[in-house]
Please model this.
Amino acid sequence: MLTLSACALSPVYGGGGRSASARLLNDISVAPITDRAGFLVRESLKEQLGKPAANPRYRLEVLLDDKIVAFGVRGDSSAARERRTLRARFRLVEASTGTVVLDDTATADAGIDRVSSNYAVVAAEATALERLANDIARQITARLARHGNATAKKSTVSDSPR
Model:
């Protein structure tokens, strides 16, 4: 522990439910996100952030870009593999003023084998989307938590006597 304090590292959730990160995450509502990928990301975010306060101070807006690119060519000129990439641009907006507090992106991708069964390919694509949505939600939650922690440190430093 002494070596961690010497390098200025501190746990993001230090203080448990009263930490700056936990308070920020509980003060965020997640705006609706379009399409199937959006539904999955939003549900995962709501699960990770927990139930928001009665009047959340912030709104999380997410725009998704979901792409599937085929590559690896077989002898019959069909694709042997696919890469599914889910990219999210997210913004944390102060609800009362509309001020953007944080603007960032998160990206996740997965490889999918193309087999002879169309059903198996569709099932693999759907499973990959579910995994990617959870990964994107975890990345967003982690960045929001870091932002809450960094914001609290800045305000503590600026509030301390000189």
